[in-house]
């Protein structure tokens, strides 16, 4: 009996050892070789050939021809800030090819631009990450406003796409983003984020593939559907990399994946991201008095530019009042603002209700401003 037991133990040890050795050999065989033209642009920072040993180097994992299942058991990093939270939520499969490497190099040579965009993102990124995480979506989607607008809510394209997520009027209407004489919901941080994620979820349900969904976000679902049908009619593959796409769309996903890779390892690319705490930057408060930007800034103790940056959807200077969406302010200024509104003189309240927009602006001229001139 003892001999049988010992024989069984030896068999198990040898079997496990062979399996480990086999796994190691399998991993070592996988590699990625740069295209010579790309290697020439990248320079000496990376070796021309990358070998994957048993210890996976996640900094370069997106370059390797390995299966996503090998990373299924990876442990999340400690969350010190929003960027860590984003890294832990990356789910999209790697995208190979020279376009990603070229865009990484492009951003790496524009360190000030990356720093500036990440600084703008500090106002909005926590909210977007919360919304993406709540829906269980790939965290790469939280970086999409970098590609779309550089985190500039006032951005307007030649195709009349506006806001962080760059909605054109037609798509905005489909996703219930109001466009009026005084209000453009495409620039509303909260409303446009919900609409963008609704649209992205719709596209993913339609194509069952995030790469095709993202191509459709840029080019339109009908255009991508036609491209798929053309390939199928010719007996060709109909995945993202096999489709014939216009130049802008062909570069769209590589841009996002390059940004993902930079966020994954900013030090590897020589860039610095603004520190963004893992906490809410802004909060909403309902205000029924019609106040203009300068009045809100005074009552909140903020520069008017900060109020404008959080409430860019208003075409006029009046950003609160009956029927207006919640006013967004830095979370640490909400309490002070609420107290100042509560102490707002009753006589001025009566005037603001009866006289409307014009008199409200005049009634607050005497209050001390934190910024010398209005926007």
Strand and helix map with partners:
Elements lengths: L1 H27 L2 E3 L2 H7 L6 E3 L30 H7 L9 H11 L2 H11 L3 H11 L8 H6 L19 H6 L14 H19 L2 H10 L1 H13 L13 H18 L17 E4 L7 H8 L3 H7 L16 E4 L3 H9 L3 H10 L1 H7 L12
Helix pairs in contact: 2-4, 4-12, 6-9, 9-10, 10-11, 10-12, 13-14, 16-17
Characterise the protein shown here.
This protein has 375 residues and is mainly alpha-helical. The protein folds into 3 domains: 28-67, no CATH class; 81-269, Lysozyme (Orthogonal Bundle), CATH 1.10.530; 282-363, no CATH class. Helices cover 50% and strands 4% of the residues. The protein contains 17 helices and 4 strands. It has helices spanning 2-28, 36-42, 82-88, 98-108, 111-121, 125-135, 144-149, 169-174, 189-207, 210-219, 221-233, 247-264, 293-300, 304-310, 334-342, 346-355, 357-363; strands at 31-33, 49-51, 282-285, 327-330. It has a two-stranded antiparallel sheet with strand order 1-2. A two-stranded antiparallel ribbon has the order 3-4. The longest helix has 27 residues, at 2-28. The protein is globular. The model is unreliable at 2-73 and 355-375 (pLDDT under 50).
